[in-house]
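Reading group handout, session on sequence-to-structure problems. Before we discuss, look at one worked example. The prompt was deliberately terse, the way you'd type it at a terminal:

> structure Ribose 1,5-bisphosphate isomerase

The input record follows.
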Amino acid sequence: MDTEVAPAVEAVAADIAEMEIRGAATIADAAADALATQATASDAETAEQFRAEMHAAAGVLYDTRPTAVSLPNALRFVFQSMEGTTVESLRQSAVDAVEQFRDQLDRAQDDLGEIGANRLRDGDTVMTHCHSTDALACIEAALDQGKELSAVVKETRPRNQGHITAEQLREWDVPVTLIVDSAARRYLDEVDHVLVGADAVAADGSVVNKIGTSGLAVSARERGVPIMTAAQTIKLHPGTMTGHTVEIEMRDEAEIIGPAERDEIGDIAVENPAFDVTPPRYMDAIVTERGQFPPESIVTLMRELFGETSARPWEDPV
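And the output record:
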């Protein structure tokens, strides 16, 4: 059976894998749009062939970033909404599902920002880690409320995503102090709130986010600085309700050491985990577009949204 994947889908997958497309919401949006592209481009002659092509496209997208659960949640939304017995009915339902998903995605971040902004006070200094559009939405909403904020931004090596956060905050005229990651504990004495995003949130309230989040959370708790995670519900990981653990992506060693440096140092092992896991006891709140939750209560929301299943409908046999 011909299961050709559209070149545009392959291109999106490559951009996600190479982090040209980054940020959980942006990844989810791109993945959903790629499925719409596949549906529109398909020359399938039968419903069976069309489904096979959509499954193949979803598989290519899913394999790009195993830790970013927003991606499979986007795929899950489209496949659960895709229905029909003819190619045209399947195509139209897929395109409609993608449009609905993207509309919900647009509204979710604004709603989340309004909720998260209520935790920030006028005059607060906020410490950030990595680059999270959800976390920035909270700051933007607080600024829209007339609050004055300043920020301490961790550069977040090895890819320095903190620089993106710093640039955005300066566009909003927020005073920014950029620091190296290892200086975080020193500067916690000067901040009022730590605000991070998430790539996935497990059923027990554990937060999977950019490497370094866990250490920051432990230090914040020791210093008595409240820390919250801003995460749209597309980042909730339904698979963890059945005991599955979140796969942590290991990235290329070239991000942290070049061939010449490696040769100079000698025979060493190099590991580059992209994410770590912060236990729920170190987080004060998880803020979503559905409200804010103590980490231990997030499973209630997950059951409401996903039931008890961890199924990946795009992997169902055709």
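Points for discussion. First: Residues 113-306 form a domain with the Rossmann fold fold (CATH 3.40.50.10470). Second: The chain has two domains: 7-111, 113-306.
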